[in-house]
Task: structure prediction
Amino acid sequence: MKTRTGRKISLSQLKPAQKRKAWQHLKARKPKVAELLQDETFQTLKEHFNGDIQVDADDVKEALYGQH
Result:
């Protein structure tokens, strides 16, 4: 079982190249998270509340920092 750090990474604040890496990683390794991020209702709520998209750091750190 993988332990979680509890830390979050703001996808909204990443540089474009980092966003692409994180997105490709999420689509390949966390398809349910990627599906949620593309959901129309989720996007509507994000825009309505001027939301910041954050994910568990453990879900994208490998893509962004090369860590397992």
